[in-house]
Amino acid sequence: MTQTQTLPVQPPPGRTHHTETPLAPLAPGRDTGIDLVRAFCVVVVVLLHALMAGVTLGEAGPEFVNAAEGAPWFAPLTWVVQIMPLFFVVGGFAGSIAYRRLRERGGTPVAFIAGRVHRLLLPAVLSIGTAGVGLAMLAVSGVPTELVQTAGFRFGQPLWFLAVFLLCQALLPALIAAHDRAPLSSILGLATAAVVIEVLRAVAGMEAIGFLNLAFVWLTLQQLGFFLADGRLGALSHRTRVIAGLGAVSLLAGSFLTGVFSPDLIENLNPPTLALLLTGVAQTALLSLLRPTLTRLSTRPRIAAVAGFVTARTMTVYLWHMPVLLAMAGATALLAMGTGLVPPEPSSAGWWLTRPLWLGMAAALTAVAAWALAAGEQRRMPPPTSSGLRAAQAVLAGLAGVVLLLVASTTVFTATAAVLLLVVALRRIRR
């Protein structure tokens, strides 16, 4: 059953609400069309990273490389596979629905935050801990230090998403309240902050300040998901949504042609630029137009089975796909050294011929890992704390653990420290 994504919006006392009409209450059940989109986003991330994972044999032995680096085909591909903006919009949609339902049952903002910390960080403890053990085993087995460091770096790269998504979800109750009071002002405020930061970074050459948009760009896109969830976007005419989507695409294309932003949308990821904000607007407009079709597709048995499998294991898939890819790359390197077979050079004809098998293996092995290791993500939440301070401490400890891996790379030491910080976070959310 699909859900009516709308809720009554009450104006603050003493103030008349002129811009919104009464919205219907939430219907029970999940929105299977949105679940399908979320599952699609996760699968695209896995396949994209699998395509980028490469192994070559250099003079010193095997090397882990980014197979897409410098490849002329990659930038155009990113216009299709850069789905992180859409993922945050869908995250805002799902978070909005989940939070409002929790409040209907008498839940509190603190309980929501505690639940998100539990759902995001519990599976991360096992993944990061296993990575630390694996790096230790590689080191004592005599694997070259540079290769061990590269493996640690590659493992930690995708974890930026865990930190940013945790921050966005922790702020969701406050941003939902702002959205209900003043929907346009709240999203425009976040978007304006993102624009100001981008201008300062570009005009004043303040590169470091651009990392503040790790908050404002993704928070803006999450806020856009609230509009999708409460029916405001769906209430717009078909023409208006088409114009909004085409306008965002036109501005994005103009930014590429004038050199404002790189046409490689992956390069716009760290730190996130306004190109991703425009991408998110275009993707959201398209999603809004296609929702009836997606809902129908999501009810087909095979599609529903795949979407349900991924949706129930989203964080497990995300956290374990990189260890799977590193294991595949390591096995390829060992095979090459043992047999003398040289892996095909990235972008060569031989490399492309082997990509279907490589991508299929990556998807299959990641699915097996997700099936075997999903217990952490699916484990029932213990009674949560009622203390806002403890919840805030949990979020900060979780962020500190992940940021440590991003800044100092993943080593045996940093993995151990990160696991300890995540355990502290999980302890703080308990009653």
What does this structure look like?
- The chain is mainly alpha-helical.
- Helix content is 71%, strand content 3%.
- Strand 1 (53-58) and strand 2 form a beta hairpin.
- The longest helix has 32 residues, at 109-140.
- The two termini are 34 Å apart.
Note the topology:
Blueprint: H1 32-52, E1 53-58, E2 61-66, H2 74-81, H3 84-104, H4 109-140, H5 145-156, H6 160-181, H7 183-203, H8 213-229, H9 232-235, H10 238-257, H11 274-298, H12 301-311, H13 314-339, H14 349-373, H15 375-378, H16 388-408, H17 412-428
Antiparallel strand pairs: 1-2
Q: Uncertain runs with pLDDT below 50, 5 residues or more? A: 1-24
Structural class: mainly alpha
Span between N and C termini? 34 Å
Note the run of SSEs as H and E: HEEHHHHHHHHHHHHHHHH
Q: Percent of residues in helical segments?
A: over 70%
Radius of gyration: 22 Å
In order across it, which strands form the biggest sheet? 1-2
